[in-house]
Amino acid sequence: MYYDLNVQYTSNKAELQGTLAFLAELGYSTVALNHTITGNVPADITNQIPKTLSFDLPPKLKILRRCTLVHSDPSQNYRLSILSSIYDVVAVRPMTEKALQQACHSLECDIISPDFGVRYPFYFQIKTVKSALDRGIKFEICYGPGIMNADGGASRRNLISNATQLIRATRGRGIILSSEAKTALACRGPADIINLALTWGLHQDRGAEAVGREARSVVVQSQMKRNSFRGVIDVVYGGEVSSKPVHNKSDEGKQSKGKRKAEVLHNDPAVVEASPKPASKGEQKRQAKKARQEAIKAREDTMDETSADDILQQNTLPLGQLTNGGIG
Q: In whole numbers, what is the pLDDT of the chain averaged over residues?
C-alpha cells in the first residue's frame, strides 16, 4: 500500500479526476487532497474539500482531506484543534526558525512540511528535529515543485539542499515523501520516488517506508486523535442497549446476601442436578476397593460352579455300565 498525502485540491473537476486516476495507475492506494491556509484561522472555519467528490473515483482508492497551515508568527492562535476536528490530516508549514521550533516542541499537528522550494536562512537542528520525532510527528519532503522546475532551476537546487540537510538531521527516520502535485505531470511512481530519495542520502529501505509504513502511521495516528481519548483509549462500546432480556436477580440477591457466588450456585437445585459434585480421593479409593472385591467374589463363584460340575461328571456312570454285566 502506497500513500501520497499531499495532492493539491482544485475546483477543476476534469484536472483533479485525471490526477487521481493517474495516481491510482501508479499504484497508490491512499491519496490526501490538500487545502492550504495562510494567515489567521477564523473561528467558524469549514472544510473546503467536499466529503464526496462529484465524479467517479478509481476503485480501491481512498481519499483523505488534509489542511496545511502556513506558520510564520508563533504568537498567533491558529486553532489547530478546530482544524483537527474537521480535517483528516493537519500539517504545519513553518516559514521561520522560531515557527519551526514551536511546531517541533508544542504544536499539535500530524506533519511538519517545510517548503523545500525556497532557501531557508537557518539549518535544521538535530535537537529540534528529534523533539518532533519523539512526539510522533513526521517530516514531509515534497518533490513536485522541484520536478516541475517552474522558476528556472532554483526550486530544484533548494529541494536537493534542504532534503539532504533534513535527512542528515533526522538520520532518515520519520520522513514521508509526497508529490504536492497540482497536475498529473508532477506525479511519479513509488519506485521512482525511492530512487530519487536515494540520491539525497535516504537509504532505499527508508525510502520504501517513506511512501508506505511511515505515511500509514500518520493516517492511523490522526484517526486515533479524533476517535479516542488522548490517543490512548478508543471507545468501542458506546452504551448501546442489549436486545437480550435482563434477568431480575433482586430476590435471589436478598436471599443469598453475605454468601459467596459459589455457595449460591451449590444451593441451587437446578445447578446441582446439571453439574454433579465430583467424588473426593477417599471416595474414589473406596469405590475402587469395592469394585475389586466384587470382581474377586464373582471369580470365586465361577470357580466353585466349575468344580461342582466336574465332580458330578466324575460320579456319573455311563449308561453301558448300568447293565447286568456291569454291576457286581
A: 81
Q: How far is 204 from 106, CA to CA, in rounded Å?
A: 31
Three-class SS state of 202: coil
CB atoms within 10 A of CB 176: 25
Contact between 11 and 37 under an 8 Å Cβ cutoff? The reply is no
Task: Tell me the three cell numbers of residue 75.
Answer: 504568537
Mean pLDDT confidence for 112-141: 92
Contact 71, 101 (CB under 8 A): no
Mean of the pLDDT values across residues 106-120? 90
Tell me what percent of the chain is helix, strand and coil, each rounded to the nearest 5.
50, 15, 35
Which residues sit opposite 64 in a β-bridge? 32
Measured CA to CA in angstroms, residue 85 lies from 62, 223, 277, 311 at distances of: 19, 10, 59, 105
Residue 303 has pLDDT above 80, yes or no: no
Q: Which amino acid is present at 181?
A: A
The pLDDT, as a whole number, for residue 143 is 92
Measure the CA–CA gap between 46 and 192, rounded to whole angstroms.
Answer: 36
The three three-digit cell numbers of residue 184, written as one number: 498529473
State the Cα–Cα distance between residues 135 and 106, nearest whole angstrom. Answer: 9
Closest CA to 152 of 117, 122, 180, 182: 117
Lowest-pLDDT range, 95-99, 208-212, 284-288? 284-288
DSSP secondary structure, 37-64, as one string: EESPPPTT---SS-SS-SSPPPTT-EEE
Query: What phi and psi values does residue 285 have, to the nearest 5 degrees?
Result: -65, -40
* CA gap 306, 303 in Å, rounded: 5
Q: What is the pLDDT of residues 222-248, one digit of tens each?
A: 888 877 765 566 655 555 565 555 555
Neighbours of 29 (CB within 10 A): 15
